[in-house]
Design a protein that fits this description.
With 254 residues, the chain is an alpha/beta fold. Helix content is 47%, strand content 17%. The protein has one domain: TIM Barrel. The chain contains nine helices and eight strands. The protein has an eight-stranded parallel beta barrel, surrounded by six helices. Bound molecules: pyridoxine-5'-phosphate.
Length: 254
């Protein structure tokens, strides 16, 4: 059977994190998105957080106008981002939990079919043609609840598996069993998603080292990867960046 081509969504939040460290204008995540798409990204993902610690509203507006593939806007329910999503109509929105004190999105969304804010947000986004995914823990009941909420997709939170993967590859032994356990959870959640006909995305903590171990998940159609790609970009680009500055200084001093 032919394998599905897995969509690569590149999360560029941390390009904005570097910019916000100086509250300046560089590096511009919009420039990064153009280069990411030239490099083969199928889409660009950004999280407009309530605390605006990295991506700003200006970025989302420019990305909505310039991304050629899919723009996936991550947003928390009830944090005032829905109005912007209604105005810009991104192709995808991923509903995520948000805590002000967290370093990154910790844990999946707690979903209940009785959550009226969630039901309304999903409906508003879908009515305007935005595909809605819910970022959830790899838990079979939670996948069923996502399907009852009529979400188009789930994004399985791969963070616990990724953490276990790194411990297992560093320490082996008992950690390998924990990694296997987390992988089985992802596989079972993916199987339920396939059975219910809900699209399967996955993301968080995926790296160049561990990505291969996820590719067998049944009907996996998208991966959202950020930190590892931005981290590698800093390293593979630094030699050229220093050489450019060296040349400018040398040319000026000559
Ligand atoms: N998917 C979601 C819903 C996220 O919140 C994040 C982190 O912003 C990612 C994917 C990407 O995670 P990472 O930066 O660890 O690759």
């Amino acid at each position: 059977m032919a394998r599905l081509v897995i969509h690569l969504g590149v999360n560029i939040d941390h390009v904005a994190t570097v910019r916000q460290a100086r509250l300046g204008i560089e590096p511009d995540p919009v420039h990064a998105s153009v280069l990411a798409e030239l490099g083969g990204a199928d889409g660009i993902t950004v999280h407009l957080r309530a605390d605006r610690r990295h991506i700003q509203e200006r970025d989302v507006r420019l990305l909505a106008a310039s991304v050629r593939g899919t723009l996936n806007l991550e947003m928390a329910v009830g944090e005032g981002v829905l109005d912007l999503a209604r105005e810009l109509r991104p192709q995808e929105a991923c509903l995520v939990p948000e805590k002000r004190e967290e370093l990154t999105t910790e844990g999946g969304l707690r979903i209940r079919t009785s959550d009226q804010d969630l039901v309304t947000t999903i409906g508003v986004l879908q009515d305007q043609g935005t595909l809605v995914s819910l970022f959830i823990e790899p838990d079979e009941d939670t996948v069923r609840t996502a399907a009852e909420l009529k979400a188009d997709a789930i994004e399985l939170h791969t963070g616990s598996w990724a953490n276990a993967w790194h411990r297992a590859h560093k320490d082996g032994g008992a950690e390998a069993a924990a990694c296997e356990h987390e992988l089985r959870r992802l596989e079972r959640a993916a199987a339920v998603a396939a059975e219910l006909g809900i699209r399967l995305h996955a993301g968080h903590g995926i790296t160049y080292h561990n990505v291969r171990d996820l590719l067998h998940l049944p009907l996996l159609c998208a991966l959202n990867i950020g930190h590892s790609i931005v981290s590698r970009a800093v390293l593979v680009g630094i030699e050229r960046a220093v050489r450019d500055m060296r040349n400018l200084i040398s040319a000026g001093a000559a």
